[in-house]
Amino acid sequence: MTIVIVQKWEESESGWGTRPDGYSLHLTEADRQAFVAEYWERQKALSPEVPDEYSRTDGTPYEVAVDTATFELVKASNNGIRRFGTPSGSGGTDGWRPIKT
């Protein structure tokens, strides 16, 4: 097992509110920050207006152990991978664990 960084995401939809929208996995905090920045650049390229529906990061990133296959996918990616469903790890009592610095 190898450690990666988990960032949860939530979807925000006008008139409906927010709901969980998967998670992303990253090798480093710098990769996580770059992944998020690239996401927002792609969103801004679509339209300068705030869309009716979009995803955003949710909560504090945390570390989790993943299997070798998942680690290799993250390692081969450009700053991380996005997944949908429930992320690995308990994330602590409030669902989040801070990254060790």
Ordered list of secondary-structure elements with their pairings:
Elements: E1 2-13, E2 17-26, H1 29-46, E3 53-57, E4 62-66, H2 68-76, E5 81-83
Antiparallel strand pairs: 1-2, 1-3, 1-4, 2-5
Specify the overall morphology: globular
The largest sheet is: 5 strands, antiparallel
Strand composition percent:
25-35%
User: Based on DSSP secondary structure assignment, what is the total number of beta strands?
Assistant: 5
Mean pLDDT, rounded to whole units? Answer: 86
Instruction: Pick out the low-confidence regions.
Output: none
Q: Helix/strand/pairing class, anyone?
A: alpha+beta
What is the C-alpha radius of gyration, as a whole number of Å? 14 Å
Helix content: 25-40%
**Count of the domains:** 1
Q: What is the tally of helical segments?
A: 2
Distance between the termini: 20 Å
Query: What's the helix-strand series?
Result: EEHEEHE
